Amino acid sequence: xxxxxxxxxxxxxxxxxxxxxxxxxxxxxxxxxxxxxxxxxxxxxxxxxxxxxxxxxxxxxxxxxxxxxxxxxxxxxxxxxxxxxxxxxxxxxxxxxxxxxxxxxxxxxxxxxxxxxxxxxxxxxxxxxxxxxxxxxxxxxxxxxxxxxxxxxxxxxxxxxxxxxxxxxxxxxxxxxxxxxxxxxxxxxxxxxxxxxxxxxxxxxxxxxxxxxxxxxxxxxxxxxxxxxxxxxxxxxxxxxxxxxxxxxxxxxxxxxxxxxxxxxxxxxxxxxxxxxxxxxxxxxxxxxxxxxxxxxxxxxxxxxxxxxxxxxxxxxxxxxxxxxxxxxxxxxxxxxxxxxxxxxxxxxxxxxxxxxxxxxxxxxxxxxxxxxxxxxxxxxxxxxxxxxxxxxxxxxxxxxxxxxxxxxxxxxxxxxxxxxxxxxxxxxxxxxxxxxxxxx
Length: 441
Prior knowledge:
- The chain is an alpha+beta fold.
- The chain is built from 17 helices and 14 strands.
- It has a 5-stranded mixed beta sheet with strand order 1-4-5-13-14, with helices on both faces. A 4-stranded antiparallel beta sheet has the order 6-9-11-7, sandwiched between helices.
- Strand 13 and strand 14 form a beta hairpin.
- 52% of the residues are buried.
């Protein structure tokens, strides 16, 4: 085989065979196919797309380019959840303990934050002493003992994806639906779970800005998962407004704990009930309605919160902060952001809200940036709320006062205040299975 011929074949709109795709990924990882040829292929995919068979073959090839995690050492059904990322998205820390409390195992590998979206691993590491880097044996032990464990991604999980993503990032081929689907699902298949729930965000703070694009991506990923033998469902959820009230690492852990106590914000609680009940449904715990009842039960009786504390302790963390969140280290300075005029908040550029939080120290500009765990934003007002001129819309937290001015400029520009109240948008737009797209709004 020659890479030249494969590029030409895709350029002409023809489908590659499984053998051709395996050859291409294997030789690219080995350094035998240069970046410039792979770049040409990625651009051909951007314009010509891929068939269902091609995306499955490429996902499998990328997944098998590194370690394939075998979770058979963990008893019972294992369910994974993947979010396409957002602002204030602390759902993993809420739904994993809920699902574990209902008797389903959650063995999850999560990422770190970069840019405007936060990473679950960074949020968990704001808990004093907690380790997200565990050996395989310790990871399995924690899941078998507590029902759940969330750790950082293995360095050798789908190495082809790391190379391909770095190339897509600099060749304007990131926003190709088949390539996004391959990137996400290769890591999910390599992680070894039986069932996969996909949380595909849509809106101003999401990678996919439109509902139609979000549904197209969800369908592509669900088909890959099902064709690879994993039970897979996707939910299209809103990211036009930050989720919950808290943005930032320890701030989001605190809000996750409040939600597990039954005191969380309405939007965050509702999204988590949808996600957790679908994970239980995939694991065969009953109808969606029965699974929703289970979810509400383990929140009400405190079992879900106990599971989070048990995981924290098993991973070396101080579980006392889960029961008393006042023990978290506080930022040195806080600053109120005041409304410049009276009216209804009709729009929040969610990506800009995330960037403002990162500017306060809560996020990374580069992979090597240090995170300030206590930094971030607590939203006092969101879309649909009325504000008086001079009333606090948000409170900023940082360890350096000089960070407030630039972050406030970014935040103020992100918020639109008008005389008329905006129409409410739904939190969950659709549920996507292999056979249908069920519109929920």
